[in-house]
Design brief:
2 copies of one chain form a homodimer. With 213 residues, the first copy, chain A, is of the alpha+beta class. The first copy, chain A, contains 10 helices and 4 strands, in the order βαβαββαααααααα. In chain A, helix 1 runs parallel beside helix 3 and helix 4 packs parallel to helix 8. Chains A and B meet through strand 4, helix 3, helix 4, helix 5 and helix 6 of A and strand 4, helix 3, helix 4, helix 5 and helix 6 of B.
């Protein structure tokens, strides 16, 4: 099992957490997103992932892309421990929280979008930081409302880490990098602490990866 | 079953297709995204969806949000006909294509993002159209490469409509609205034609909705 990854990529971070929670061994192949204009745009990597993004996972003779699709695959092929609740409506709730991050926050603040704002839309470093914080703060505020509206649990949905928590922890790390004030999101921060106390989350942190700088 | 929807919202369009493919009856509750500053921001709707986005689906006593989470729920609760292939790696492939649209294209070109670019980042109508087309063209080019790299099929993955096709058709409609040149994506356009020949897709089209303008 081979994971094409970048230590600081949130989507790679999600898949690392999932693999660790499942107790699966994997080899890391670093793809540096900044070096030489981005190794993800090289001919070699384009054959692995035509979308030129990380992560990609080589597994059982296939190459899978898109972090949430990879994690759903892992959950179907290696069901123990489950990364989604068993009740269908609770599964939908966990997936919707994950998608609130993966669709509505992360794509707006990732590196290629910020670079494009600077290069093609005359935005300064300060402008793009303000842009990123806007979408992070708006998205996390919705998520805080949704999570805190449910019963008090150890994790986003229930008392076991799910896809929602797997997306939450890397997004809060990004929020800190952009200078968001996380005191508005006490429920999310409490859940993050609970997650980071687990070895699967701890080992997946950017600073604990072989390609960390 | 009650679907909070807006005729022109791509995410609502996806759920309408899925409900139609499953043969499920549903009541439409229109939420107008432009009228009065956006009905999705009103107090009443905020209680239904704290993220203030459409769609939301009231079903079996719960309210579900995020189109892909809703569709996965429908596929689990009403498995016939399936909206994902049966092979786990093919399921991952269909999901990854759906996510390439739902994470990497649609969130960058939706109404609230374009409005924010204009209101807070001094971008003109022409600037935001150029921005939207950039992400649409880049994303569809990756998707065209991925879909055409596989075996020739009637749909994105295999010979039955899946989650990938459900996301593709609304995204191509958006691409046309922004003036993208779709002749670069012949495989995607061929699949779109095949989809739109199905009554489930036809009935879900924005112009065929009760709230269409």
């Amino acid at each position: 099992m081979k994971l094409y990854t970048f230590f600081r990529s949130s989507a790679s971070y999600r898949v690392r957490i999932a693999l660790n929670l499942k107790g699966l061994e994997y080899e890391q192949v670093p793809v540096h997103l900044r070096r030489g204009g981005g190794e993800q745009h090289g001919t070699a990597y384009k054959k692995i992932n035509p979308q030129e993004l990380v992560p990609a996972l080589e597994i059982n003779g296939r190459t899978l892309i898109q972090s949430l699709a990879i994690i759903e695959y892992l959950d179907e092929r290696y069901p123990d421990p489950p990364l989604l609740p068993s009740d269908p409506a609770d599964r939908a709730l966990a997936r919707s929280m994950a998608l609130m991050i993966a669709c509505e926050i992360h794509p707006l603040q990732n590196l290629r979008v910020l670079n494009h704002l600077k290069a093609s839309h005359h935005q300064s470093d300060e402008d793009v930081n303000r842009w990123a914080r806007h979408w992070i703060d708006l998205g996390l505020a919705s998520l805080e409302r949704l999570v805190s509206a449910g019963p008090t649990c150890e994790f986003c949905v229930g008392d076991r880490a799910t896809l929602a928590d797997i997306c939450l922890v890397p997004q809060l790390a990004n929020a800190r990098r952009f200078g968001s004030d996380l005191s508005d999101f006490p429920t999310l921060v409490r859940i993050e602490e609970r997650c980071n106390a687990l070895p699967a989350f701890e080992r997946a942190r950017p600073e604990n990866q072989p390609d960390a700088e």
